[in-house]
Amino acid sequence: MKGRPLKLLSALKRTAVVGAVMLAAAATLQPVATAAAGAAPPVVGGTRAAQGEFPFMVRLSMGCGGSLLTQQIVLTAAHCVNGSGNNTSITATAGVVDLQSTSAIKVKSTKVLQAPGYNGTGKDWALIKLASPINRATLNIADTNAYDSGTFTVAGWGSAREGGAQQRYLLKAQVPFVSDASCGQSYPGLVDEEEICAGYTQGGVDTCQGDSGGPMFRRDNNNEWIQVGIVSWGQGCARPNYPGVYAEVSHFAADIRAAAATL
Prior knowledge:
Elements: H1 10-16, E1 47-48, E2 57-60, E3 64-70, E4 73-76, E5 85-86, E6 91-94, E7 105-114, E8 126-130, E9 140-141, E10 151-156, E11 171-178, H2 180-186, E12 195-198, E13 215-219, E14 225-233, E15 244-248, H3 249-262
Parallel strand pairs: 9-14
Antiparallel strand pairs: 1-11, 2-3, 2-6, 3-4, 4-8, 5-7, 6-7, 7-8, 10-11, 10-13, 11-12, 12-15, 13-14, 14-15
Pfam families: Trypsin
Keywords: Disulfide bond, Hydrolase, Protease, Serine protease, Signal
GO molecular function: peptidase activity
């Protein structure tokens, strides 16, 4: 679950901070059980990312994802952190797709800034300042809603199935935009101006436990990656008619940049 208290599994996400990405996998992932004995187990819609494919991806030690807004500031979800202030308890892992790689870059946090006014509904963004820069490419954020449509990419180390274990390897998948009107039919509490939805009507590919705070991104007009969403919440993982819900980055871009300037 990636979501609010009224949603199934929301306590898991909000209290244990493990909200968000059901990305499918290769043979190393835990399979969904098949009906027929001996049949090859299916996977849930994605593939393993290549080393260096998404250099801006960050894994956070509390069980969330994030992206490098700058080389020293990670953008993640507000529900992944506990308020604002000095904080040296978070470890950011970057530079690898395999979390057990000896090449992994690990840096401690120094400060956290949770979105002002965050109360569990909407405004699901936060910034984490690192003790030292991570020398990897950063991910630009969308300043307008011009990119809030089409097909998006999501990536993370979260569960490959609802209720499953989080993953050692970075996984990726693509999900299509879902309109506010359509998404609101599934989620009457959707905050239209602050949230954006993506997923398939038939389910099968989605975000799941363990990737809250990770980015949803696409190519901009210069063919560069640009972040349009932050993994936030949803009902279960990859269920039909229940798309993933993401913080709409373009709505908060000015606030995010202003906040980053204060860190």
